[in-house]
Amino acid sequence: MKIFNTLTKQKEEFVPVNEGKVGMYVCGPTVYNYIHIGNARPMIVFDTVRRYFEYKGYEVNYVSNFTDVDDKIIKKAIEEGVDASEISERFIVECKKDMEGMNVKPATTHPKATEEIGGMIKMIRTLIQKDHAYAVDGTVYFKTRSFPEYGKLSKKNIDDLEAGHRDIKVTGEDGKQDPLDFVLWKPKKEGEPAWGSPWGQGRPGWHIECSVMSKKYIGDTIDIHAGGEDLIFPHHENEIAQSEACNDETFANYWMHNAFLNIDGEKMSKSAGNFFTVREISEKYPLQVIRFFMLSAHYRSPLNFSDTLVESAKNGLERIYNAVDLLRDRAAHGEGTLTDADKENLAKLQELVDKYEAAMEDDFNTADAIAAVFEMVKLSNTTVRTGSKEYAANVLATVEKLCDILGIILEEKEDVLEPEFAALIEERTAAKKARDFARADAIRDELAAKGILIKDTREGVKWTRA
Ligand code: AMP
Ligand code: ZN
Q: What is the spatial distance between Cα 320 and Cα 45, in angstroms, rounded to a whole number?
């Protein structure tokens, strides 16, 4: 399996730290509002990566945090006059509802930053002891220049960064020894949530969260660290510096970053009026359509969200649903075991399974994997009517398995009887009541000729399709 590694800028063969296991950390959302449609992209993409590893037999330890202490959460809490925890708890619940709607599996662990403060204090202490960090008036900074490899992920040269930073002075950060240094711990401000620490009351910086939570729930070296491409710098660069300076181990072997989702060709922004939450979109489209749409492009390509493109994803998904309906019908009502023709068609189906897997093994190319599913749908539609019951069951199981990797739910639709047949059944019941058995039998034969078989039971008339 090949993964494009942001660190080396090439596709590399995946070799896990522990055989048969994958430890994956995906940076999660800051919970101060409903998640937006851009946030949905990494959730769907990396959930699909996880599902593919599971399909290949790996045991996946999937960790994704909730950033539940942050300036934006505090701002919203002040506006509403409530506790910051009330805001974050509310939007964690809402985020989980959206995830369920998009069929994103719950992580093995969803740590919350506020529940991991002890671990963060411990890591910051180690960094100070190792001379990678220093405290000034209740603030702790990471000494960026103490980590010689700083910039290796984002391919930034530290001296260029220095030049860019020279004029920037952030208020409250006057004690910095070097403009490149970043905050690990910040002192309490009035009205803000705070925890006790060796440097006084305060709260952690954002980057330290992920270094601590991935170490605790996965280990010093994780297989895959993932998130949106905006996180490469400074967030992931800083995570590497903190973790490797603390643990003296490689932090993550593979770095995966999804490209951004744009709306009608423009960057999503509240001020431009093209900002949509997943909740808003769910009123217009089923979230299954949104999931399918997200996977219709490669995760490293920018994706444009427009009604036309979502409609086309909707039609594509409909084609799969229809093929599955037909397969289910033939698997239930067809007859016989595999014929020679069926066997030939199953060999063709296997070639498409190989094609699907080859696409996924090539840096999770879901676009090509979906193309293979469409080819299967075409093969199925042209062969299943003349194939045996066993053939239909085989094709159905394969399509269901491959759709499950993409997180596409193929719910069984309730089979509703056409109104004209329902009317005939009613007429037959009335005829029987009036002891007009000739008419009742004639109606039964007429229905049978049209493919509807009826049976009188104690609970009333039951029907099946021939
Ligand atoms: P945030 O809550 O802003 O930290 O974002 C949570 C996740 O969503 C991160 O992995 C971001 O990189 C990702 N993300 C945010 N906006 C977009 C977007 N427009 N397209 C794709 N991913 C995004
Ligand atoms: Zn993170």
A: 20
